[in-house]
């Protein structure tokens, strides 16, 4: 599962069902979400710089009000993911789950995300993400990556 804000803020957690490809770029282990926890969330993670990808289980916490949980069907891995796994930029945190271009289906909506035009079962695409305010000129024009109040968290 992938959890992301309906207001285009940071991707928070991702899991895979057996047989799906490894995905995910950002990992926030202290995240919380409303509702029952799924302690069987799995992904593939590098546990150290340059490490091999290994099965990684984690508890994503509770779904927050503006979060959307997405079952990942497909996920891209690009060169920035390899740079993060190898800690080429000096700020990677481990375990690190790579991949950040996702196609999947909405499986849960936080209480505040329900009026954002998404529906459970809807197919969605998620590009590169970073925390953004959702209200400034950059965000409103679709350029969340340029949000002055935004910040990339734990790439």
From TrEMBL:
Protein origin, superkingdom: Bacteria
Enzyme Commission number: 1.1.1.2
Gene3D superfamilies: Medium-chain alcohol dehydrogenases, catalytic domain
Record key words, sorted: Metal-binding, NADP, Oxidoreductase, Zinc
UniProt KW Zinc keyword: yes
Domain annotation Alcohol dehydrogenase-like N-terminal: ranges: 64-147
InterPro entries: ADH-like_N, ADH_Zn_CS, GroES-like_sf
One Pfam family recorded for the sequence: ADH_N
UniProt GO MF annotations: alcohol dehydrogenase (NAD+) activity; alcohol dehydrogenase (NADP+) activity; zinc ion binding
Cellular component GO terms held in the UniProt record: cytoplasm
First-tier enzyme category under EC: oxidoreductase
Listed cofactors: Zn(2+)
PANTHER family the UniProt entry points to: ALCOHOL DEHYDROGENASE 1-RELATED (PTHR42940), VACUOLAR PROTEIN SORTING-ASSOCIATED PROTEIN 11 (PTHR42940:SF8)
Protein family: Belongs to the zinc-containing alcohol dehydrogenase family.
Full protein name: alcohol dehydrogenase (NADP(+))
């Amino acid at each position: 599962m992938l959890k992301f804000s309906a207001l285009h803020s940071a991707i928070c957690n991702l899991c895979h069902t057996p047989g799906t490809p490894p995905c995910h770029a950002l990992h926030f282990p202290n995240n919380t979400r409303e509702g029952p926890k799924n302690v069987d969330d799995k992904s593939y993670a590098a546990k150290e710089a340059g490490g091999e990808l290994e099965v990684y289980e984690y508890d994503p916490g509770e779904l927050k009000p503006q979060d959307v949980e997405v079952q990942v069907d497909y996920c891209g891995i690009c060169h920035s993911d390899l740079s993060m796994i190898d800690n080429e930029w000096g700020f990677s945190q481990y375990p690190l789950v790579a991949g950040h271009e996702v196609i999947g289906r909405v499986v849960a909506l936080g209480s505040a995300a329900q009026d954002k035009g998404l529906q459970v079962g809807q197919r969605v695409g998620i590009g590169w993400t970073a925390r953004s305010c959702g209200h400034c000129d950059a965000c409103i024009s679709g350029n969340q990556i340029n949000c002055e109040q935004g910040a990339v968290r734990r790439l």
